[in-house]
C-alpha cells in the first residue's frame, strides 16, 4: 500500500575527515549490495562493499530486524563496488563474488563452512542438525548422543530406553534387573527343554532299528495296537475286509514304549 516503517540501520560505515560531503567528510564508500539467505536460517542476510576501505562485508540477519556486527570477507579489493552471492563450486554453500575496478579484479570467495548445506537431505541444514549425516534424526535435546526420535526420554540425559514401557527409564527402574533375570531364566529353561527333546529318539528311528517292527507309545498305564485286515488278489489293489485285530497291554514297571514285530 506504499507505506513503510521507520529506517532501521544495518550498519554505519566510518567517515574520513576530508572529502566532498556536505559536512566536508565522506562515508567510507558503501557502494555494492546483495541480499541472500547465506546461512539457510530463513532470514535474508546482507552483503555490502566499501569502495574506500576496499572491503566486502557480511551482515547476518539475527531476526526481528536486528543484524550482527559485520564480518569482513576481504579488505583488499581496491575500489570494490559490486558484490553478488552464488554457489560457485556446487557444494551447497553460497559463495561471494566481487568486482574492484582500482585493481582490475573480479574475485570470488569460497564459503568454507555454514551456509545452506543439508548433507542427509532431511530438510534441516547441517549447521542446525545435531545429526547431519542421519536423515532419521535432527535433534538431541538432552545432549546424550541419542537422537530425540530414538530416545524414549529425549529431555533426560540419564535415560534413553524403557524396555517394559512403564514410563520409568531402565536406569532408574528397579524392576528392570528383575525382568531381565526372569527372561534369562525362561530362556535357560526353554534351552534345557529343547536339548532334552532333541536327545530323544523319534518313533521312526526306533522303528528302523529292527526290520518288520512297529513302535507305539503308551500312556495312562496301557498300550493298545490295532490291525485292520485288508485283502488283495494282485498285491496292488487292497480292500478292507471289515475285520480288525486289537490288542491292549497293561504297562509294567513304568515302561512307555512297546514294539511289536512279526515272526520270521
Q: Spell out the helices and strands N to C.
A: EEEEEEEEEEEHHEEEE
The strand order across the widest sheet is 3-4-5-8
CATH topology of one domain: Thrombin, subunit H
The share of residues in extended strands comes to: 25-35%
Short description, anyone?
The chain has about 260 residues and is mainly β. Helices cover about 10% and strands about 30% of the residues. A hairpin with a 2-residue loop joins strand 6 and strand 7 (about 65).
Detail the topology: elements first, then pairings.
Layout: E1 15-16, E2 26-27, E3 30-36, E4 45-50, E5 55-59, E6 61-63, E7 66-67, E8 71-74, E9 82-86, E10 95-100, E11 105-109, H1 175-199, H2 203-208, E12 213-217, E13 222-231, E14 239-250, E15 257-261
Antiparallel strand pairs: 1-2, 3-4, 4-5, 5-8, 6-7, 9-10, 10-11, 12-15, 13-14
Amino acid at each position: 500500500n506504499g507505506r513503510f516503517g521507520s529506517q532501521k540501520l544495518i550498519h554505519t560505515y566510518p567517515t574520513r575527515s576530508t572529502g566532498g560531503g556536505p559536512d566536508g567528510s565522506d562515508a567510507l564508500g558503501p557502494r555494492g549490495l546483495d541480499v541472500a539467505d547465506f546461512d539457510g536460517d530463513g532470514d535474508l542476510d546482507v552483503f555490502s562493499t566499501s569502495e574506500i576501505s576496499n572491503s566486502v562485508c557480511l551482515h547476518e540477519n539475527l531476526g526481528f530486524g536486528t543484524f550482527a556486527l559485520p564480518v569482513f570477507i576481504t579488505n583488499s579489493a581496491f575500489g570494490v563496488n559490486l558484490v553478488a552471492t552464488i554457489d560457485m563450486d556446487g557444494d551447497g554453500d553460497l559463495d561471494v563474488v566481487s568486482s574492484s575496478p582500482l585493481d582490475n579484479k573480479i574475485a570470488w570467495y569460497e564459503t568454507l563452512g555454514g551456509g545452506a548445506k543439508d548433507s542427509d537431505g532431511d530438510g534441516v541444514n547441517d549447521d542446525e542438525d545435531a545429526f547431519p549425516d542421519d536423515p532419521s534424526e535432527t535433534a538431541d535435546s538432552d545432549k546424550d548422543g541419542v537422537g530425540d526420535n530414538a530416545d524414549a526420554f529425549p529431555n533426560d540425559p540419564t535415560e534413553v530406553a524403557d524396555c517394559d514401557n512403564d514410563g520409568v527409564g531402565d536406569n532408574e527402574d528397579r524392576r528392570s534387573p528383575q525382568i531381565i533375570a526372569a527372561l534369562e531364566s525362561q530362556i535357560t529353561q526353554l534351552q534345557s527343554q529343547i536339548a532334552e527333546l532333541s536327545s530323544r529318539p523319534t518313533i521312526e528311528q526306533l522303528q528302523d532299528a529292527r526290520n518288520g517292527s512297529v513302535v507305539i507309545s503308551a500312556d495312562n498305564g496301557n498300550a493298545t495296537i490295532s490291525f485292520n485286515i485288508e485283502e488283495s488278489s494282485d498285491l496292488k489293489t487292497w480292500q478292507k475286509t471289515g475285520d480288525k485285530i486289537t490288542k491292549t497291554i497293561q504297562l509294567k514297571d513304568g515302561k512307555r514304549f512297546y514294539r511289536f514285530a512279526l515272526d520270521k
